[in-house]
Every structure is written in structure tokens, then in C-alpha cells.
Known about the structure:
Blueprint: H1 2-11, E1 22-26, H2 33-39, H3 44-50, E2 63-67, E3 88-93, H4 100-107, H5 111-116, E4 131-136, H6 152-160, E5 165-168, H7 175-181, H8 186-192, E6 204-207, E7 223-227, H9 234-240, H10 245-251, H11 253-258, E8 265-269, H12 287-290, E9 295-296, E10 308-314, H13 329-337, H14 339-360, E11 365-371, H15 376-385, E12 393-395, H16 400-410, E13 417-419, E14 432-434, H17 439-453, E15 458-463, H18 468-477, E16 482-485, H19 493-499, E17 505-511, H20 515-529, E18 534-538, H21 553-558, E19 562-565, H22 576-586, H23 592-610, H24 614-620, E20 624-626, E21 631-632, E22 634-636, E23 642-644, E24 648-652, E25 658-660, H25 669-673
Parallel strand pairs: 9-20, 10-11, 10-12, 12-13, 13-14, 14-23, 15-16, 15-17, 17-18
Antiparallel strand pairs: 1-2, 3-4, 5-6, 7-8, 19-24, 20-21, 22-23, 24-25
Helix pairs in contact: 1-14, 6-8, 7-8, 14-23, 15-16
Signal peptide: 1-19
Domain LysM: 23-66, 90-134, 224-268
InterPro entries: Leu-bd, LysM, LysM_dom_sf, Peripla_BP_I
Amino acid sequence: MRYLFLICFFCMMSVSASSQEFKYHTVKKGETVYSISKDYNISEDDIYKYNPDAKNGIDESSKLVIPLAKKDKGMPAKIGSPSLDPIEFKEHTVKKKENLFRLSQQYNVEVDDIKRYNKHLYSKELQKGETIRIPVFRKLDRVVAKPNNTSKEEIRQEFDKNEVREHVVLPKETKFGIARKYGLTVKELEALNPTVDVLQPGIMLRVGTNVSPDPVVLLDKNFKFYEVKPQETLFGLAQRFHVTQDSILALNPIVEKEGLEWGMVLKVPNPEEQDPEDWLEPTLSSEAEELQGKKLNLKDSLSNFSPKNLVFMLPYSLDNVAVDSIGTPDYDNAVLDDRVLRISLDFYSGAKLAIEDAKELGISTQAKIYDTKRNASEVANIINTNNFSNVDAVIGPLLQSTTEAVAQRLRNRNIPVFTPLSDKEMRGGNNLFIARPTQQEMSNTMLEYLQKFGEGKNIIIVADAKSFEIKNKLNQIFPAARTVNAVDGYVSEESLKNALLPAAQNWVILESSSVGVISSTVSASNRLLREELDITLFTTNKNDSYDNESISNEDLGKLYFHYPSVDKEYNIEVSEDFIRKYEEEFGVTPNQYAVRGYDLTMDVLLRLGASEDIYASFNDFNGFTEYNENKFLYEPQPGGGFRNKAVYILQINPDLTLQIADDSQSNIFREFKD
């Protein structure tokens, strides 16, 4: 069904952490910090943490920010789950073909909201004729901030008609804080004071008369000011700042009173100062991840909301698929027999979803799709007969010859070309972005990892004759390493045991593409585990031989096998929204090519939304970006163009789960293994 939808379209042209909630408390006569802490079941230190001035005493009618005590600490908070209680319920009788997604769209609620009040839907499907309860929330938590296109001159004229007052800038005050105090947006404040660029204490500003009782200066580093961007929702803000919607409302009563508006200045928790245990989504804070720099979240830096123009050039070869066969067995066989066509369809299905999600962030996109027909001459024809003057980026083609042809022909126009799947060296120019790291880059990243965390370990290098280059590099890094050589394509248990130490952490680095060498090493290592030896297995190249049926993942998991990878396994909780949307639209779980299409396209769109263009984004932001399964860290290539150098170091666990490896605390690592 997914392929039918996409073919017709072209022919017609997934954390366990509790969230922190806050509320304002107006001090009553006779109240003390101690009595207030008891009322809210928190400590006095909790109050002082968010209200440092309270140490000097509290006055009647003053306001305190209260961190509410966490409930059900054993249960993780659901990402993005609203805490607002329903104001009423509607009863809905399920009709034929209705599903939870359609009902969520019809009633403007989340699927999880429906499940929460119909518990049986966690384990059962909707049944035709059954009656379920639909929660009705305050309209506020579904409000979308709309762009305000009023010019600064029009703003000044509007304020000139009304009464204004003057404000003397105090030390440490910011435009955000002053705008918040007088109920203005930063744009409105700047329009009223066009000659003021940088704030200095003592400067007189023109402001509105709607004065908020909130303080202008944030003395508590646990909070910061944030300006609402176009199309943002209260739900999205709660998710971004890792709190509930009630917390946003408690910190900003004006939102509940007037609704969410673009440009509104909100007081929000400062993620950089929050306790990581209070965050709702994982952060890559491990030393292993920091080997490749800082993680960027471009969603927090969106500023360029002009419409984006993307071109997808993919090798469909639709001329080989008869249009009148769509929906027939001949059509199904044609798609299933053509691997490149299947990959192209899957890739664009993910890209299409990324475009839809980016729109919710305020980034609208015009996308054009061209069939390269796997032919360089067809690429030339597409570029010569279509207007590429306003194109922000080209994604594709997938194949080397057509990719080189596109990049070379668009080089003089400086249009970025992203090739998503190939890791080959390509000719093209400075406009070519190869989104997949080479095997050499993956090996080098693994070597850096081993060098960083291998100190103090008993290093054993197991290699065959063909792997002499990587063996020499390992010997340079670990001069004291012990070596076990394969003999006649086999590694004996005795030779491996002689290299192991009983009271040490033994790191076995296996370098071979021989099934026999790999299989015998893995089997011998597993048998030696029974003698209570501490063994962890590594490789710089997890090649196809590891997929042989003689090498079981169970055995690799017992050894906590570490290896470099282009992508990781998506976390169902973190990627829940993406997976749900994909399954609703296409009826299947996204495969690696669909996820790749989503991640790459989202990265391109966010870069365009955070900077003037793709090239400027690399000057504006230093670090790597990460999405469902993929991360991106583009660096210039010696021959021109850019290549993604971002690599994961993964480990297989005994329960066969995959995780990003981090041996930064390897001295206590085995305590968690046992």
C-alpha cells in the first residue's frame, strides 16, 4: 500500500526520567519558607534553589517559584505528555475504518490522551461499535503561535495612538526581560526605541503601560527568557524545555490569560542548568560521544522562515514500470524485484514526513521530485530543462555516476548536493556533500575510542595476515598489547587464554574478514567467560562476515561487542512520534532507508532554517546534529566538497539490545554487566 501511494504520487506530478513541574505561590501573612515547604512536601533548599533572594526573608504578597514534588518516581514521564486535566469528556462510537490517529485528528487530541482514558486501548485495537471517552482539554494547550507581519513603523504608529511610559534600564536587564515586564514582544520594544541598539544602564526606553508584577532580571540561572517563534505550540514548548504544560502556564500566567502569541517573551527552565535526571530526553553527555564534539539542537536556533526549495533526484526508473499495472501482481513484482526502486521509495517516504514535521516548526517547503532513470544524460536533461535558480539544496541521486553529474553541473551555481547513501569518493566540487562516512573514517573513530578508554586494560590483538595495516596501527597505540595470530584461519582457545589476565579487564580487538577467524575467536571467548575472566570484544570493522549464521548475536552480546557504525538503532520512546506518524501514513514500520530519508532531510531543512544557507550553517554552528538513527558532522574534504564524519560506537548487550557505548567509567563497568 505504501509503494502504491508513492508510485501514484510520482506518476501524477522511538526516556525514563521524571519531569519537573513549577508553580507560583503568593506569600500569605504569617507564612515562612519552612511552612511553605511543608505545604508543598518539598525541602527548604528546594525553595531557595529557585528563589535565592528568599534567604533574606520573604514578604507578604511576594511570589515564589515552587518546584512541585515529583509523583510516582518509579514511573518515567511520557515525553510531551500534557499534565492538564480534561475539562470534560465526549463519548464517541467507533465507526468502520476509524483508527486512533484519525480520532486524534478529528478531536485535536494526542493518541496517548485517548489511550489514557480508555486503558484497554493500550493492548487492544479499536472495535467497530464500541464507545470510548474522548478527553476535551482547554483550548489553550493546542494554540499555535501565528507570525506577526506588522512592520516596525506600523508598530510605532499604533503605540503613538496610545499612552506609553518610560523605563530606566537597570544593571543586568535585557531586552527580553524588559519586553516581558511590559507585555511587549522584543520586536515591539525595538520598534518603540529604534535608536537603541545595545542596552546600557541608565538609558531611558519607551515602553507600554501594561506592567507585569514579575521581576525584570532573572537572578536564578535555572531559568531564562525565551521568545516564542512562529507556529510554536504550548505542547511543543513543554517538550522542548522538558517540563509539563502546567509548568509553562505557572511560570507565565499571561499565556493562560491571552493565549500563546508569536514574539511573546516567556520565562522557562534553562536546560543547561537543570539536573539531567529531570530531563525527558537523553543527552549525549558521555565522554564517548564528546569525542566528536558538541551536539547541536538546531530547533532552538530557527530564525530563517522563508519558504525552502528542495529538489529530490532519485533513481526510480519509472519508465520501466507500466502505469496501467499499478495495483496488479505485475506491478508488485516489478517493485519487489527492483531493489534500487524500493530503496528510493522508502527514502522519499521518510523525507516526505520530515517536510511535514518541519512545517510544524514554521519551515514551509516546496519540494520537486525528478526521476534520474539511473542515467547521467537524463540528469543533464533535467537540469537543462528546469529552473534551478531558487533551489536551496538537492538531495540525491543515490548512485555515484548520476551524483557526480548533478554536482558538477550545479557547481557554478553553488547549489548544495547531498548524496545520502554512498560512502564512495566522488568528483563534483565544493558543493558536494557526502552524507555517509567512509569505512576508514569509522575505523579511525574506533581507534580514537580505544586509545581514550583503553588505558589500564589488558589489550589483546587478534588478527590475520590480511589485516596487517590495522594491526600495525593498534600496536603503535598499544605498544604493550599482546598478539594472538590466526593459524590456518582459526584461533585456538589455548592461544587466546594465554594472552588473558585473570584479574584484569581484557579487551580483545578482533581484526579479520574471515568467518573462521571471527567464529573461532567469538566461541573461544565465550567459553573462557565461564572461567570468570573479564572479556570485552572490539573491532574497527564490523564487516559482512559477522552476519554469517555461525556467529550468533547471543555470543557477541555476552562479550559486549563494540563496533563503529554509521547509524544506531532508534529509541522507540524518543522516536515514538515519528514511528507513529509513519505507520499511520504508510501502514508499516519505517526501515533504515525511510529513517535515513527523514533524518537527512530534517537536518538539511533545520540548517536552512537556522542560517542564511547551508554553507553559512557550518560557520554559525560547530558540532554534530543527531536525529532518529543518524548524526551529521560535515567536514571539508582535501579534494573539495564535504563529508559526514559522524560515527557511532555501539555495543551489543546480553539481552541483544544496542546502545551507544561509553567506557568512561570502565573501572566499575563490570559491576553493571554482572
